[in-house]
Structures are given as C-alpha cells and as structure tokens.
Write the structure tokens for this entry.
Amino acid sequence: MPDDTTHADMTELEQSLTALASMPPDSLLRRTVVSVGSADEAATTDSPIGPVWIAWSTRGVTAVSPLFASPLFDDFALIHRRTAFEANHLPNELAEAVTSALDSGDSAGVPIDTTGIGTFQQAVLGACATIPAGQVRPYGWIASEINNPGSVRAVGSALGKNPIPLLIPCHRVVRSDGSLGNYAFGAEIKHDLLIREGAILA
C-alpha cells in the first residue's frame, strides 16, 4: 500500500524545487543570503513620526529608520556588517506585531534582533526596552540597571546609536533634571512622542 504521507512530502519537495528552478538568478541569490543570515530585508510602514523603514532578519527586527533621516541602506552595512534588500512589504505576522507596537507603545510582542551590536550597547538597549509607554527614566537609571552606575555618558552615547528607535524606546530616556536631552531625530519629535504617550502634558 503506498505511503500517502511520503507521496505528499515528495510532491511538496518537487513543488519547492520547481519554484527554485524558475527563480531568476538574482532572486535565488537574495533568498539564499537572507535565509543564511548574511543579509536582511527592509520595507516601509507608517509610524507616529511618519513613514519608516523596518529591517528584519530571520530572528527579528534589526533596524528602524525614518524616511526623512539618512537612508537606511547607507548606514545599515556600517552598523550590522551585512546588507539589506528592499522588500515590497513586511511579512504579515511581523507587520501585525510592529503595527500594534507602534500604535500602543508596547513592543513586547515584536521579535528584536541585536546580533552584532556590542555587549554594552545590548545591555543599555535591553534596559531601555523595559520602560513602559507613558513613563520616562533618566540616563542614570539605565546605568544603574546595567550595574554600571558610572557609565551615564556612555549610556547616552549608546542610546544615540540605537538602531531600533521607537520599538526600543530611547525617546523615554531624559536628563536627571527632567529636561528632554538629545534625540537622534530632534527634540521636537521626542517631545511629540512623549506627549502622544502621555508621559508629559501638551
């Protein structure tokens, strides 16, 4: 008696091989380098600060960059030491998670990939990611959270190079005197984001 499961598996394999064989060489190369982690993909989506590029790997989101800032693809290779290919759209599941996070300010449901980022910056970004929407923390709080209370200046530098703003909410980190401090996209956008989240009054 023939094994239906084996036959179904073979049919699926044949279909996959046929699809690969029909791919143009450039598409096949792109799919291969993305699947092995040698390149990411990126597409645009809306956000509270306007359209942004979202880059992702097989492990999660690797970069967020507003369209009005320096082009994502110019900086991506410098930060991540790999390239990113432009895609038509985010994968459906990731798109839903990102949209929900950008709307709510809670990015806990978004997979984040900080592979290639230094240990210190990973610790800083990890602490920053725990700050809830509607609240702020001083730079010194993050330094204490990562058990390095003397690193306040270095914390500020690490946040200034945050490759995943909005989803890792560096805009929620302020100076100890309550003033906003620096933000990669300008103090006005930082102020507007905090108003939107209810952290400060309009």
